[in-house]
Amino acid sequence: MIVLFGILVVVAGFATRRNPLLIVGIAGVVTGLLGGLTPMKVLAAFGTGFAASRSVTIFVIVVPIIGLLEHGGLQEQARTLIGKLGALSAGRLLVIYLILRQLSAALGLTGLGGPAQAVRPMVVPMAEAAVERKHGTLSERARERVRSYAASADTVGLFFGEDCFLAVGSVLLITGFANATYHTHLEPTQLALWAIPTAACATLIHGAQLLRLDRSLDSLAAQASLERGLPAAVGRRTAKADHNPAQEAK
Amino acid sequence: MIQAEWLYWLVGALFLAVAAQMATDRSNPKRFGSAAFWGLLGLSFVYGTWVARKTAPAAPLGAAVLIMIVLAGCGFTGRGAPRTPSPEQRTASAARLGNRLFIPALTIPLVAVVCSTLAKHWRIGGRPLLQTGSETIVGLGLGALIALAVALLLMRERNPNVALHAGRGLLESIGWALLLPQLLSVLGSIFQVAGVGTQVGKLTTHILPGDNKYLAVVLYCVGMALFTVIMGNAFAAFPVMTAAIGWPILVTQLHGDPAVVLAVGMLAGFCGTLVTPMAANFNLVPAALLELKDQYGPIKAQIPTAGALLVCNIAIIAFFAF
Prior knowledge:
The complex is a heterodimer of chains A (250) and B (322).
Chain A: H1 5-15, H2 20-34, H3 39-52, H4 63-71, H5 74-83, H6 90-106, H7 115-135, H8 140-162, H9 169-182, H10 188-194, H11 196-228, H12 236-249
Helix pairs in contact in A: 1-2, 2-3, 5-7, 6-7, 6-8, 6-11, 7-8, 8-11
Chain B: H1 4-23, H2 31-52, H3 59-73, H4 87-97, H5 102-117, E1 123-124, E2 127-128, H6 135-154, H7 161-174, H8 180-194, H9 196-207, H10 213-231, H11 234-253, H12 258-274, H13 280-289, H14 297-320
Antiparallel strand pairs in B: 1-2
Helix pairs in contact in B: 1-2, 1-7, 2-3, 5-6, 9-11, 10-11, 10-12, 10-14, 11-12, 12-14
């Protein structure tokens, strides 16, 4: 029973907004020691766990290329490109990205997309350009909202697309666990089939959320111009200049 | 045969190069702390190869991980002044290069997909070209290298160091969040060893009264979501909740269709992943990558969807499993 204390550490840590690295580190050490591991074994558990999970961090390999392309104007070009597509609002653009992400993930192409490869260099500049075309400049709050929703479209699309594909980690985990533990004969095809209803619900529900984004951006823009008493004119650059010190403070 | 470990060494080398740059970056007030963090991370990536093969002791790596936690968790790391071209320069470059800028960006996923589908079957001298089981990871690495070459050619940039500098800026903005996903996976394995799963299973069976199937479905799905919120990972919650409720009660006792129960149960866990900062790689890392002030921005955008989908999952099991 006492090993559950580790879960309490996690919950309490987040409730008091401590640094997540510290929370997880402390919860791991506490749980290990309470579970009867020696300090040496706890260290070893941290080491083996780290070595076994390096693939999670592998996306870092694309970071220099994306940085280089951004120096070359990738985000600006994405903006120009979407500027040519007349009627596409930010919300509609993100709905299209959500569906594309779901479909490609359902075909097993989970590598097409992701926050580093697609959202930052392409999707966000396109969505922001769509908002700018409609409302002129982008307030800090509007930018935050557009970017948060762009990240959410990617995540929701991936989660509820990939399970419709047979050879994905979670489907294999389910069949592996059930067939080994309960001596049954679950087929990946059956599981993938039963992921489809949830995938359809996800498209409808999150798609509706993304379309609502347009309306909330409209009211943000109206509010901003009311507050300033003039048609929104304070430029993007001011917002950007405010940005970095705040990030430092975090 | 191209091995996944080579790619880990490349990532390790990238971290080490970034650390060396940071140590000399006078615009970063905490340059030595930062250099120590990224340097240790680089060394850990390389040393991890032998830990994974069980030919080197794991404890030193564990100690390094704890030092990294202290360095980043107690605020000994910082970031330097970003050195990016001016907006005018970038616009001019965009005008010159046009849509060709997308070619390298699209090369990465294209190569990754080719590797995980076609190149998987390629053989040289009877041995597979890419390490079996790691084709996608190897493909991502190959895609990145090819894309880098294409980008340098396209931009007529002779100095690959420019990419390294640009990458460092991005890595500094991600910061400590980069380490969290791996740490969570470590926490999961420690929970496993310490027997947390069994305890939670016992607790849940105590709570559940009699044979009310709808209540059992709700408990299974909500339990999956809640435990995923705590662990940051539905894969860690799945064996626990399935052993506690999913199999013994929903399948064995109430004769639910196991395919529906287990497939949708896992998806109920994914609803938890959408709303937890513990799932750092899906929620905090994108927030850092997109330079959001509010690191919980993506989570806030996902909360309504997660709630509604959890209800859908409960309904799907309740209607279709029995």
